[in-house]
Write a structure and sequence with these properties.
By secondary structure, the protein is mainly alpha-helical. It has helices at about 1-10, 15-20, 40-65, 70-90, 95-115, 125-130, 150-185, 190-240, 245-290.
Length: about 290
């Protein structure tokens, strides 16, 4: 129904409606041109807010933990901690590194899960609220799923890359890592000419590997959440036809059934994508500990 009111009130076509909902609230002008000086304010707002909220909940649980029968929230956090700790021990074998990597993996999972969960909110919820508050002209665009924003997911994957680079240097030493960059995966040669050629090839392959890992890490999460958000919008449009005909009524009922079914299925996607992002973080950091 929210989609129906939005389309009817503003006279938007289906394409314009989806385009409006896929546009970010940005600093500067709205443009399709890539400009690194432009910030997506809505993604930053929700990312920071949900990150602080997630850490606050974990902190409160840690402060109120009891040795007796745990409450539901404490039990859920304990299960999550055990799961993350088990995965970290199986991938990162350095006990000292796990003191940082374990909490990092937990933070990544909770944060990404909360960001993904914003997709469960009704498509037009905040647009309607902004209209009621009279802020529709001041805030014409407002997306609420930060992980459906490529700049957010690539920012996260680049942060993981920095952690991997740090552990490459810490575990292997700067000289050891530099040597690995020019000797793996093809090895080296005693012949100076062949050694130079292999060194260039090895270095190129290493750069490609780092780039591919980082880009695929961010793109995988973005692609799944962007597609999920788009499906919710398409389902919402089914209810925008109105009740003037049997077709309209059938589409509205279909929109209710399809929306409910997709929301239930999306619960799995939200949790699974958070788990995959966390696991890839552990895998990449674990690989940074391996000597070649």
């Amino acid at each position: 129904m929210a989609a129906e009111e939005n389309v009817a009130e503003h006279g938007l076509t289906a394409g314009e409606y989806i385009g409006h909902h896929l546009t970010h609230l940005r600093t500067g002008h709205q443009s399709g041109v890539i400009d690194f000086s432009v910030l997506n304010i809505d993604s930053l707002f929700w990312s920071i807010l949900l990150g602080v909220l997630g850490m606050f909940v974990l902190w409160r649980v840690a402060r109120s933990v009891t040795a007796g029968v745990p409450g539901r929230l404490q039990a859920a956090v304990e299960i999550l901690l055990e799961m993350v700790d088990t995965q970290a021990k199986g991938i990162v074998h350095n006990a000292e590194s796990r003191k940082f990597v374990g909490p990092l993996a937990l933070t990544v999972f909770v944060w990404v899960f909360l960001l993904n969960s914003m997709d469960f909110l009704p498509v037009d919820l905040f647009h309607v609220l902004l209209g009621v508050l009279g802020l529709e002209e001041a805030i014409p665009y407002f997306r609420v799923v930060p992980t459906a924003d490529l700049s957010t997911t690539l920012g996260m994957s680049c942060s993981v890359l920095l952690v991997c680079l740090y552990y490459n240097v810490k575990i292997k030493g700067l000289g050891g890592w530099a040597h690995e960059l020019v000797t793996a995966p093809f090895g080296t040669s005693k012949n100076p000419v062949f050694a130079l050629i292999l060194g260039v090839l090895n270095f190129g392959m290493q750069m490609i590997e780092f780039t591919a890992k980082t880009v695929s890490h961010g793109m995988r999460l973005f692609g799944n959440m962007y597609a999920g958000e788009l499906v919710f919008m398409l389902i919402a449009l089914m209810g925008a036809v109105g009740f003037g005909s049997a077709t309209g009524i059938a589409l509205w009922l279909g929109h209710v059934v399809a929306g409910t079914s997709w929301a239930i299925f999306h619960i799995l996607i939200v949790a699974l994508q958070a788990f995959i992002f966390m696991m890839l973080t552990l895998v990449y950091v674990g690989q940074a500990h391996d000597h070649h």
